[in-house]
Amino acid sequence: MTLLAPPAEATHSNAPRGEDMTALASARSVIIVRCDGDRFPVLVPTVPVTQVSVRSIGSDVDLRDLREALEDARMGVRFAIVGPERTVYAARAEIRRAGGLDSEIAIRVTERDARVILCAHCRERTPLDGPTGSVVVCAGCGTALLANEHFSRAHAAYLGHKVDAETAP
Amino acid sequence: MTLPALRDGFDLIVADIVERSGGIRSLAFSAPGGEELPGFTAGSHLVVGCGEKANAYSLTGEGLFPDRYTISVLRQEDGQGGSLFMHGLAVGDTVRASRPRSAFAPVNDARLHLLIAGGIGITPILSHARAAAAWGRKAAILYVHAPGSDAHLDDLETVARAAGFELAECSGRAALPQAIAAFLDDRPLGSHLYTCGPDGFMDRILDEARAAGWPEDRLHSEAFGSAALDPGEPFIAALAASGERVAVPAGVSLLEALEGSGRAIPNMCRQGVCGECVLPVRRGRPLHRDSYLNDDERDSAIMPCVSRCLDSELELDL
């Protein structure tokens, strides 16, 4: 018997993976949500289709066009969100706030490297072009944040906490 | 012997009776001392002892600090006796009842609650409408009934007028398809649909909604008066833990057979609705006749109160 913890076999992650487009099959109308100018081709059933665009600017996301579309959205609609992870999930969160369910949302992530780090201490959002495990200085409180492998779908951001919180003198 | 559903129940006094059109009678129950009763979620039901058996009845109130429980019972001459028992009660009589049980609750963050009642299925729908009004939720109501059998229409009108709910009515079969289509049309994203009525009626509503692109998680239905099930083929229940083999003859439910062999299976409605008696299946293809398990669960579980087996043997993790 050893007192040492067994080596971690794989890093635990709740980062979104395995998105699919099956929600579109039962659509009566489709709203394609293009994120950050993505042009990935989306195959939709032969139903009325509208397109809106959503764009990340730094750590903010401009959701105005999507919000407008959501105000008029009717039952039977399905959403196809395409683009970089951080913007796609911000759009998904907005649709869910408007009453949409995951069974009505199809997601296609085309790029995952651009991240937003949500500061656990001041809640400011900081962009990070790099993998989890990186350290980034919080745009709000200046704390050096460790970007955790912990993704909040509601915030469309990875959780960051003070990198030396446990070891700083 | 106390029926399982009533073991944690209490005695209630018949406080008021109202006879309504279409052979429907409303009963109000109160606590013996008149004290406040446990509150409940809209769409809840009460199990009431009716002589040797117990029946589930939807509560029609909104559930906030109730001093009375109200139910409405359709008189069924050829039923199993429950409705005749309820129609024989007089003010002042005592009944044994369960606490309210919720199996048809509203989704609180729905943007719009679409409530569709067929006939006596009006009872939980009235509860939903009243609760929606009390909580400031938005609702629209469609009441489908036979001509002249519009029990509780006056109550619906009162609620709808006070809360500003849309209230549509449909009497007679000919107008039904158009009424359903019109009622489902052009609803905002975030709506949820609730229906209660005869099985065929609810199937029709739900199929129509699916065809209009409503996903399953927005559809809610409350089964009542489960149609008499056919006796089914005999089979053997093999119990994996003990190696015991229990014969289930035609006309005897798996639950009854297991109870006959001395096993206490927790159960409640005994009509495939409540989910209480669910058992894990190891081998054999269940013949599902319940309205509780979802498609994912049907490979590995069975409701022994109503369901049987397609094969000659069903192995249970028991």
Task: Describe what this molecule looks like in 3D.
The complex is a heterodimer of chains A (169) and B (318). With 169 residues, chain A is mostly beta strands. Chain A is built from two helices and ten strands. In chain A, the strands form two sheets. Chain A has a five-stranded mixed β-sheet with strand order 3-2-1-4-5. The model of chain A has no long low-confidence stretch (mean pLDDT 91). Chain B is α/β, with parallel strands linked by helices and 318 residues long. In chain B, the strands form five sheets. Chain B has a five-stranded parallel β-sheet, sandwiched between helices. A five-stranded mixed β-sheet of chain B has the order 13-12-18-14-16, covered by helices on one side. Chain B has a four-stranded antiparallel β-sheet with strand order 5-2-1-6. The chains are: A mainly beta (169), B alpha/beta (318).
Q: What's the gist of this structure?
A:
The complex is a heterodimer of chains A (169) and B (318). Chain A is mainly β. Chain A is 13% helix and 37% strand.
